[in-house]
Amino acid sequence: MARVVVDVMLKPEILDPQGQAIAGACGRLGFTGVSEVRQGKRFEVEVDGEVDDAKLADVRRMAETLLANPVIEDFSLRVE
Amino acid sequence: MTARVGVVTFPGSLDDRDAARAVRIAGAEPVALWHDDPDLKGVDAVVLPGGFSYGDYLRCGAIARFSPIMGELVPAARSGNLPVLGICNGFQILCESHLLPGALTRNKSLRFINRDVTLRVESTATAWTNRYTDGEEIRIVLKSGEGCYVADTATLDELERTGRVVARYAEPAPNGSRREIAGVTNEHGNVVGLMPHPEHAVEDLTGPSTDGLGFFTSLLAHLADGVPAAAGATG
């Protein structure tokens, strides 16, 4: 078993009100020096056997079709 | 012949019954469609209702997009033949299906908004708005948590240049939607997505007005004009 991690983040130009709310809370809680927070999603995809190029390409297709909406989100993947 | 308008029920749909009721009040026959059955039953048009399909898991509309009924609906809608109105969650499903540009994200306030809003109808050249007049103001209810319409600047410019903004909030968009956009249409004008709910504004007893009925009577006028309706006639 191997794990492919897919991180999905809103594109930089898309407003992230959740991240802004978190940044606001940081200030109120005394965590100083936080200038911005952006919130995203992390998917842990367990795949059978070793991750070869074909399997990675499969997960990439899955990420761009389902896990992320490419209209508003970017994603990156890595093998762990 | 009475027009037959399908209303799709997904797991988590809330407004399918109100949508069917609006269809009936407008003078058409509502036809219940089921997300898991890829049969459009030969309907003349389809309404994707509001609600929280699949619990809004992953993203609103992201799972519903891949349901069996959408496999039949998407090509018929994309071809320009099948009129489709997506309301609220239905609008989100249409964006996730790439039948409409842009996406709907969390309200700027992070709060669920449930109140009447005034919209300005900006395009009457669609299957669902031809009975309104350009610039007409209508008052219907907005009730959504992820109603903030976003798209990149080039897409927004293109939508405005080609008259594909169907309606705007007549006030600063309460949910933060770019350029106050409340609804858009595709290049053929057969697919319309709208965040507020016209189906809740068809009767004096329960709605803020009856202004929403025009979406459904517009469809009947559109169908009566002899525009071919080509829903997968498998039934």
TrEMBL record, chain A:
Look up the EC number in the record and give it.
6.3.5.3
Q: Which Pfam families would you find in this protein's record?
A: PurS (PF02700)
- The protein's annotated pathway: Purine metabolism; IMP biosynthesis via de novo pathway; 5-amino-1-(5-phospho-D-ribosyl)imidazole from N(2)-formyl-N(1)-(5-phospho-D-ribosyl)glycinamide: step 1/2
Compartments, as annotated in UniProt: Cytoplasm
Which enzyme class, named as a word?
ligase
A single Gene Ontology biological process assigned to it is: 'de novo' IMP biosynthetic process
Q: Which GO terms describe its cellular component?
A: cytoplasm
Task: Give the reactions, separated by semicolons, that this protein catalyses.
Answer: N(2)-formyl-N(1)-(5-phospho-beta-D-ribosyl)glycinamide + L-glutamine + ATP + H2O = 2-formamido-N(1)-(5-O-phospho-beta-D-ribosyl)acetamidine + L-glutamate + ADP + phosphate + H(+)
InterPro entries, per database record? PurS, PurS-like_sf
Keyword vocabulary terms for this entry:
ATP-binding, Cytoplasm, Ligase, Nucleotide-binding, Purine biosynthesis
**What Gene3D superfamilies does the database record attribute to this sequence?**
Phosphoribosylformylglycinamidine synthase subunit PurS
Listed under subunit, the entry gives: Part of the FGAM synthase complex composed of 1 PurL, 1 PurQ and 2 PurS subunits.
Q: Which NCBIfam families match?
A: phosphoribosylformylglycinamidine synthase subunit PurS, PRK05974.1
The UniProt similarity line reads: Belongs to the PurS family.
Q: Which PANTHER family match?
A: PHOSPHORIBOSYLFORMYLGLYCINAMIDINE SYNTHASE SUBUNIT PURS
What is the recorded name of this protein? Phosphoribosylformylglycinamidine synthase subunit PurS
From TrEMBL, chain B:
Where does this polypeptide localize?
Answer: Cytoplasm
Superkingdom classification of source: Bacteria
Q: How does it assemble?
A: Part of the FGAM synthase complex composed of 1 PurL, 1 PurQ and 2 PurS subunits.
Q: Which UniProt keywords apply?
A: ATP-binding, Cytoplasm, Glutamine amidotransferase, Hydrolase, Ligase, Nucleotide-binding, Purine biosynthesis
**Entry keyword Hydrolase:** yes
Q: In which pathway does it act?
A: Purine metabolism; IMP biosynthesis via de novo pathway; 5-amino-1-(5-phospho-D-ribosyl)imidazole from N(2)-formyl-N(1)-(5-phospho-D-ribosyl)glycinamide: step 1/2
Protein name, please?
Phosphoribosylformylglycinamidine synthase subunit PurQ
Which biological process annotations from GO are given for this protein?
'de novo' IMP biosynthetic process
Query: What reaction gets catalysed by this protein?
Result: L-glutamine + H2O = L-glutamate + NH4(+); N(2)-formyl-N(1)-(5-phospho-beta-D-ribosyl)glycinamide + L-glutamine + ATP + H2O = 2-formamido-N(1)-(5-O-phospho-beta-D-ribosyl)acetamidine + L-glutamate + ADP + phosphate + H(+)
State what this protein does.
Answer: Part of the phosphoribosylformylglycinamidine synthase complex involved in the purines biosynthetic pathway. Catalyzes the ATP-dependent conversion of formylglycinamide ribonucleotide (FGAR) and glutamine to yield formylglycinamidine ribonucleotide (FGAM) and glutamate. The FGAM synthase complex is composed of three subunits. PurQ produces an ammonia molecule by converting glutamine to glutamate. PurL transfers the ammonia molecule to FGAR to form FGAM in an ATP-dependent manner.
What SMART domains would the database entry show?
Answer: GATase_5
SUPFAM superfamilies given in the database record: Class I glutamine amidotransferase-like
One GO cellular component assignment for this chain's record is: cytoplasm
Family annotation (HAMAP family): PurQ
GO MF terms here are: ATP binding; glutaminase activity; phosphoribosylformylglycinamidine synthase activity
